[in-house]
C-alpha cells in the first residue's frame, strides 16, 4: 500500500492539537522510517516544510524565541533570528495609564468648580450655609466672597424683588440684618423687654406717610405741611426726606419710659423701622445720630387697638398696600390680644388689640443722617 499525502495527513492530524513542532517532526520521521517509501519523500518534505513555516510564524507573533549569539548565528538560522528581531520591534510594549473614575476625568474635574453651577446652588443656601461652604477650600472661599452671591441672598431673604444701590458690601449688609440684632441692642437695653422681626419693605421715593390708624382720612397731609398739627388733627403725617432703599421693620416691646421703677409693669409698643445700612454707619454706632420727636398725639378716650403704619406715598394704591389697609383680613378678633403685623412691598403696619383702658399716647420719632435724610422711624403707643 503506497504512502499518499492524504493518508499522511490523516495519520498526522491527531498530533496537531497536542504536539509541538518538534514532536510533529519526530512523529513524521518515525512514520517515514516505517514506510521507507523513497518515492514519496519529496512530497512529504514539501508538505512538512509548508506546515512548519506556518506554525513558526504563528508562534513568533505570540512568544519570544530563544536568543542567538552576537553574530546572529544559531545552527544556521540567521534569517529566522532576523525575522524574530523584526517581530519583537513591531510588538513593543505600548504606554498605558491606570483607569480612573469618571468623576476624576479632566472634564468632570473642571465641572466640580464650575462657577455658574455653584452660583445656582448658592441661591438655595442661607448665610450660615454659605459661610460653611467658604471654609471648604480656597476656591470656595474666593467664590463665596463675591458680592453678587450675598446680594442675591439679601434680596431673597428680605423678599425684595428689585435691587438697589448700596454703600456697603452686601456681605456686611446681610450680617447686620440677620445676626439677631435690633436698635435697642445699642441703646436703652435696660428698657427693652422683647421684640419680633416683621420683615423688609422698599421705599421708592422719599415721601413717606406715618399713621396711627388704618382708616386713612379723605384728605391726606400734603408733603411739607406742618407735621405736629397734622398729627394732632388727623393722626397722620408725611415726611419728604426719607432715605430710599430697603428698610427693615421690627416690633419692640419696652418698659414704660415715664417712670424709673423696676417694679413698673407698664409697657410700650414700638413700630421700629430703619434703613438697611443703619447699623453699619459709624455715626450711628458712636451715638452721634440721635432720635428726635417730630410730633405726638394724646388720645384720652378708650382705644380699641394700638396701631402704627408706614407707607410709601407713591405706592399707596398698590395691591400689597391695599391688603394692609384692609384690617379685617389680618388683625384678628377683638379678643385676640396678641400683636399682629402685616408687611407689603412698600408698606408695613402693626396692630395690637387692647383691653379696657383710659386711652393711649402716641409718639413719632425720626433719626437723620448728616445729609438730613431720615434713616430710622419709630411710632410708639403707650397706655395712659
Commentary on this structure:
There is one protein chain. The protein is of the alpha+beta class and 384 residues long. It is 33% helix and 23% strand. The chain has 13 helices and eleven strands. The strands form two sheets. The chain has a six-stranded antiparallel beta sheet. The chain has a five-stranded antiparallel beta sheet with strand order 3-2-7-9-8. The protein is elongated and about 145 Å long.
Features:
disordered N terminus; F-box domain-containing protein; 6-stranded antiparallel beta sheet; elongated; 384 residues; F-box-like_dom_sf; 11 strands; alpha+beta; 13 helices; 5-stranded antiparallel beta sheet
Helix content: 25-40%
Strand order, main sheet: write it out. 1-4-5-11-10-6
Secondary-structure element order, as H and E?
A: HHHHHHHHHHEEHEEEHEEHEEEE
Question: How many DSSP H or I helices?
Answer: 13
Alpha-carbon Rg, integer: 48 Å
| Averaged pLDDT | 78
First-to-last CA distance: 143 Å
Number of strands: 11
Helix/strand/pairing category: alpha+beta
Relative strand content: 15-25%
Largest β-sheet summary: 6 strands, antiparallel
Q: Based on the structure, what is the oligomeric state of the protein chains? A: single chain
The shape is: elongated
Low-confidence stretches: 1-17, 36-40, 58-78, 80-110
InterPro entries: F-box-like_dom_sf
Protein name: F-box domain-containing protein
